[in-house]
Structure formats: C-alpha cells, structure tokens
Amino acid sequence: MRTVPSQQRLLNEFQHGFPLVAEPFADMATQIGVTVQSLLAQLRTFQQQHIISRVGPVFRPNTIGVSTLAAMSVPEAGLEKVAAMISRYPQVNHNYEREHAYNLWFVLNDSDSASLEHTLACMSRQTGHPILSLPLVKAYHIDLGFDLETGTKKKQTGPCQHAHTPHTALPEDYKPLIKATQKGLPLTERPYLAIAKKLKRTEQSVIAQLATLLQEGIIKRMGVIVQHRKLGFLANGMVVFDIPDTMVDAIAYELSAEPRISLCYQRPRREPHWPYNLFCMIHGKSRQEVLEHVTDLRHRHNLSEIPQDILFSKKCFKQRGATYRYG
Fold first, then answer.
1. Domains of the chain as residue ranges with CATH
2. Alpha helix locations (H) across the chain?
3. In DSSP terms, which residues pair with 72 in a beta bridge?
4. Is 126:62 a contact under the CB 8 Å cutoff?
5. 108-167 pLDDT per residue, tens
6. Rounded mean pLDDT of 186-200?
7. Is the pLDDT of residue 207 over 80?
C-alpha cells in the first residue's frame, strides 16, 4: 500500500507510546501536522481497509490469563474446514496455515489453565485431530510494533518474562477496563471519556488505571496495531531451533537483540513429534529477504549445526487481538 508521509508517520510512529492524555488523537495530530478530524478519519479508513486492526493496548501474554501456541497436522483436503472450526472459538485470536507437516497453528487464550485444557480437548474431539500444545516457557522478546520502513525493532529487548509464575491477580475494578479496551479504543476525540461513561467512572481514573497497567507490564504497549501483510510484509518465517537446555538462555538473549527478530521465546518440546524449543519470528517483504536474514543469523551466531526449521505462513484464517473474559 502506498502512503503519503503523514499516513506513514501515523502508522509507524504511534505503534508505541500512545498518549495517556484527555485528547490523545489531538496530541498525535499536532505531532504529524494534521487536524484531529482528518487523523481520526484516516484511522477509520485504515480500519475499514484492514490496514490496522485497532488502536489500543496489547496485553503481555500470561499476565491476565493463560495462553498457548497450538499446532495440528491436518490433511490438505480438510484444512479449510478444520481451520474454520478452530477460528469459530472466541478464545482463538491467531490462526494460520504454515509450511510444515504441522500445518495449522493457532493461539488460544483463556481465563485459567483448566479452561484452556478443556477447550483444547473440545477442539480435538470436534476436529478429530490431536493437538500439540506449546505454552510459553520464557519470553525473551515479544513486540510486533517494528519499524515499517526498515523492518527492524524500535525498542531494545527488556528483561525476559518467565511464564511459570501465576498470572496476575488483578483487582476486580481493573477487569471491566480490560474488557472495555481489549478490542480497541473508540476513535473519538476523547476516547478515555467515552470509556469512562460506559464504566460509570471518571476520565482521569481510566487514564490512571491504564498508566498503572503499562507501568506494571500488564499492557505491553499501547498504540496503532497494524496488519503487516497489508503494508507489504508478505513473508513471515517462524524459525525454530532445538537448543540444548543449558544453552537456551545464552543463545536466546543473543537472538532477541537482533534488530530483525520481532518474537523470541522458549516453548516446550513434544517428543517425538516436535523437537524444537526456541522460536524466533522474522517478517520480510519477500521470502528471499527472510531466508537471507536467517542465513546471516546462522552464520554470525554459529547455529548452522543446530537442528532447526523455518515455517513460513501460507494463509491467515484469523487474526485479531486477544480477548479475555473479564468484567
């Protein structure tokens, strides 16, 4: 998609750091030199065109619920049907076909581990296929808000997140706010006021609670959530490695600092079906571009002899923000 400079800045510069002020869109409009009315109209157009999914918070995995990355091996003739069954579950937010014997990959979120396991069992019974569940063990870098011109990350990797600690026990009065914002902020001049009226709260209390969730790391980032394929990033390679357990941290810290790696995390092996324990995601504008980056990483980090694979995405069946059953 071709964009004019103000549109490019709107998409690129506000993936992080969305203003926590009464009139955030006016603040953004001033920064890029347009009127607030034209900025809001442009965001609505982007949403209608599926260039952005929403404007709002991205919650850190496993902080207000539980999640897993799941995979299925589905015969090609039945893939569309099975994918549609999986996508109908409201707990599923991402559902992709990838190039592998395990060709259907989806992310499942739920309120607790028992509910998540029950949902996985229901899915397996309904589809007639076993499911590999690969819950997060440790996150070294998770941030899809990368630079849309260079494809490189905008922020340095922070401390890794261990996933075995219990998810955050939120005060009850935070849960309605999460429910009200998880699908995005209203595209109005005073979005926090609109949310406050629905929740029968003050505008300032909504802003203060969102600031607390950011400070505590429950909200990973707030901003414009883009659809990368629509913006030319057509290749998405999930690179997986079988790293000796004693070396995972050292190698993962190195890889998570790489500017082209947008996701880097450890998940469990599921022998004998799935031997890999370290996952990295690289986005590029072409398959060849991604392959060149992977080759470079292998060489510079001495990974050529490590068992590994690349799973390119082929088709997106579902993609939206995670939703949590709160409030």
1. 5-55+166-228 (1.10.10.2890), 66-159+229-319 (3.30.70.3460)
2. 5-13, 24-32, 36-48, 79-87, 113-127, 175-181, 191-199, 203-215, 248-256, 287-300
3. 104
4. no
5. 999 899 999 999 999 999 999 999 999 999 999 999 888 888 888 766 544 455 544 445
6. 98
7. yes
The pLDDT assigned to 302 comes to: 96
Query: Any bridge partners for residue 270, and if so which?
Result: 274
* Structure confidence at residue 161 (pLDDT): 53
The conformation of residue 64, written as its DSSP 8-state character, comes to: S
Q: Which two tokens stand for residue 228?
A: 């990368």
* pTM for the model: 0.89
Length of the chain: 327
Dist. CA 284–CA 291, nearest whole Å: 9
Element (H, E) at 277: none
The pLDDT score that the predictor gives to residue 168 is 54
Distances (CA, A) of 299 to 67, 221, 294, 304, 323: 33, 32, 9, 7, 39
232-266 burial, b at 16+ Cβ within 10 Å, e below that, comes to ebbbbbbbbbebeeeebeebbebbbebebbbbbbb
Residues 53, 225: contact at Cβ < 8 Å? yes
Cα–Cα distance, 114 to 41 (Å, whole number) = 43
